[in-house]
Amino acid sequence: MDISEITTPATWLIVGATRGIGLEFVIQILNRGDHVIATARNVEQAGQLYLLMQSYKLGALQLIQCDVSKEITIDVSQIPLLVFIEELRSLKFPPAQFDYVIMNAGVLNYPNTCMPTAPASSPIEPSIIPYRTFAKFDEHMRTNCIGPIITAQKLLKTNVPIGMLVFMSSDSASATNFLAHEDGFAAYAASKAALNHTLRHMSEELKRASSPTTIIAMHPGEVSTDMAKIDINWEIEGVISPAESISNMIRVITTRSHADTGTFWRWDGERHPW
Question: Which residues 6+ apart lie within 8 Å of 114 measured at CB?
Answer without folding.
Answer: 133, 186
